[in-house]
Write a structure and sequence with these properties.
The chain has 9 helices and 8 strands. With about 250 residues, the chain is an alpha+beta fold.
Length: about 250
């Protein structure tokens, strides 16, 4: 690779890191971006002004924030696949019926991404908004998808992303994870018991296409004092399985 090519790649990586920083911090000053991305203030300023010129960043006082340009991109991505459009009303129906938080997720680069989200009248507020990515091993929907991936792919995901602990209940042992994935394949339902957030349980099931290809997963999450006994182990799983098996 030539020096010019390497420099261009590095510049793109820096620009993406700047965007991620503005997203994570909900806006930032030049010096804050420079510290977060580990570049000089002059380099951070060049990237920010370039992004501003291309309409991806807006300056508000001494801070830079992401522009509404990302709304157009997000709307395109969210509606690009037919399953994304079909899943949205189903997620709303599930949230209304359970009163909890319902979501549709897909796997991308070894994470699950939230594509659609709806909250029932009793839903717990969380930080897992649309587009947010989370580790697959710590959430029910992620484990449901992992259970159907080839073993080599699962091992690659573990090697790349690790099995970090988010609570004392998170599965951090590879052998234990594979044992649970086997159980999920047998019953067709995945459970997460306070594995990402203390006090929060979740249920996840796969969504398949007509060709049996895994398209994503539906999930319902709620507090442990409501998602318990038959509600957690029977009622919500049956609701999700019924939705997942609908002809559409």
């Amino acid at each position: 690779m030539s020096e010019n090519s390497a420099a261009r790649i590095k510049s793109v990586q820096t620009a993406l890191a700047v965007i991620e920083t503005l997203y994570e911090r909900d806006g930032a000053r030049v010096d804050e971006v420079a510290d977060a991305v580990d570049v000089s203030k002059s380099s951070a300023h060049r990237h920010l002004t370039t992004l501003e010129r291309e309409n991806y960043v807006v300056r508000e006082g001494d801070e830079y924030v992401l522009s509404l340009q990302f709304l157009e991109l997000g709307d395109y991505v969210g509606g690009r696949k037919g399953i994304f459009r079909l899943a949205e009303p189903k997620v709303r129906e599930i949230a209304d019926e359970t009163g909890e938080r319902a979501q549709f997720v897909v796997e991308e680069h070894g994470y699950v991404r939230y594509v659609h989200r709806a909250t029932g009248d009793r839903a717990v507020k969380t930080t897992s908004g649309v587009g947010k990515r989370v580790r697959m091993h710590a959430v029910a929907a992620g484990k449901a998808i992992l259970a159907e991936l080839p073993e080599e792919r699962v091992r690659n995901i573990i090697a790349e992303r690790g099995l970090p602990a988010f609570t004392e209940h998170t599965i951090t042992d590879e052998a234990r994870l594979f044992e649970e994935l086997g159980d999920i394949r047998e019953r067709g339902v995945a459970f997460a018991d306070e594995e990402l957030v203390e006090g929060l349980r979740a249920v996840g099931v796969l969504i398949r296409g007509s060709d049996d290809r895994v398209l994503g997963a539906l999930t319902v999450a709620g507090p442990t004092h409501r998602l318990k006994d038959d509600v957690w182990r029977e009622d919500i799983p049956n609701l999700l399985l019924g939705t997942a098996n609908e002809p559409s």
